[in-house]
Specification:
The chain is mainly alpha-helical and 333 residues long. It has 13 helices and 5 strands. The strands form 2 sheets. A 3-stranded parallel beta sheet has the order 1-2-3. A two-stranded parallel ribbon has the order 4-5. Helix 3 packs across helix 12, helix 4 runs parallel beside helix 13 and helix 10 crosses helix 12.
Length: 333
């Protein structure tokens, strides 16, 4: 392998891929894909910590992977695959469970958040899924992990587990670093701009799906929550307008100050329309490519099959090393 560094990233196939996922993840993946060895996974193992309709989950998995490709990910150059197609994720996850402390998992804020939302199904997987996330990363000797604010804690746990394992057995895992994109502000809900835009938001007006058509996008932006003073300013006191400025900035690559200057003296209605138009123009080609790719099931199958085979080869090298270190007998498969 050449000296390109390895990047691993993935999205859970729940809800839909939103504008927030696009700005925070997919758009950056497209920019990174030619400079690094990239693994882009649909992390379906993680999704079942919450009860799923099997038919709907299967459908969403296919939709998400197809949207990766439609957004511009090269499925031939990069490794694009379903997490569940590479058993090494679960296998390493179990081993790393035995090198992770209960106190560490008790401190995970997402476990507390999800437990509150799903009080009738606080299962062991929900508690230990940060360990599976660590396995996702460490399995491929990953150098860099693109992370947002809400995932930093999980990456730190992966680094701690790798360091602990290496301290016992020697140089086994590469200790991954966070990759913080230069651009990409956190995109918030259009209906509650104090909360992150979520693909599982029950209020469909709170998020933009990357497959929404132009009319839907424009309607959602027109309904976006702002405030009553009508001033376009980039301020924490105006979270709705700040969010719209961040969205416009992320798509146009203009700074927030440049956006404020561009719309100086204009009303919220004009600004909402302008944001809707740039988002619609950005997402239209993705939606069109998605529709074309969806008709070519053989090609999609080829991409995720080849991706899983390539990922499994990389995973096997790490797992064989881990198994020897912990004392397992060499296998014949």
């Amino acid at each position: 392998m050449d000296d390109k560094k390895i990047i691993f990233s993935g999205i859970q196939p729940t809800g839909c891929i939103t504008l927030g996922n696009y700005v925070g993840a997919l758009k950056n993946w497209v920019d990174l894909q030619h400079d690094y060895h990239c693994l882009f996974s649909v992390v379906d193992l993680h999704s079942i910590t919450v009860r799923q309709d099997p038919k709907l989950l299967r459908k969403r998995c296919m939709e998400f992977l197809t949207q990766y490709l439609a957004a511009g990910i090269d499925g031939e150059e990069n490794i694009v695959y379903f997490q569940s197609h590479v058993p090494g994720h679960a296998e390493l996850g179990w081993i790393l469970n035995c090198y992770t402390y209960m106190g560490e998992l008790n401190r995970m804020t997402q476990f507390k958040d999800k437990s509150a939302k799903h009080a009738d199904n606080i299962n062991a997987g929900l508690f230990t899924y940060p360990v599976l996330m660590a396995a996702d990363i460490l399995l491929y000797q990953t150098d860099l992990v693109p992370v947002g604010v809400d995932q930093k804690q999980h990456l730190e746990l992966a680094r701690d587990i790798a360091g602990r394992f290496n301290g016992i057995y020697g140089d086994v895992f590469k200790v991954p670093e966070a990759f913080i994109p230069k651009e990409g502000a956190r995109i918030m809900s259009l209906q509650d701009p104090t909360s992150k835009m979520s693909k599982s938001d029950p209020n469909v007006n709170g998020f933009i799906s990357i497959l929404d058509d132009t009319d839907t996008i424009m309607r959602k932006f027109k309904k976006a929550v702002t405030d009553s003073d009508g001033l376009i300013a980039y301020s924490d006191d105006k979270p709705g307008i700040k969010n719209l400025i961040n969205i416009y900035s992320a798509i146009t690559h203009k700074t927030p100050d440049e956006v404020v200057a561009e719309f100086d003296g204009m009303g919220y209605g004009q600004f909402k329309t302008a944001v809707g138009e740039v988002v619609s123009d950005e997402l239209r080609p993705i939606r069109e490519r998605y529709e074309d790719l969806s008709k070519n099931k053989d090609y999609i199958t080829k991409i995720y099959t080849q991706g899983a085979q390539r990922a499994a080869g990389m995973a096997r090298r790490t797992l064989n090393k881990v198994k020897r270190k912990v004392g397992y007998v060499d296998g014949v498969l």
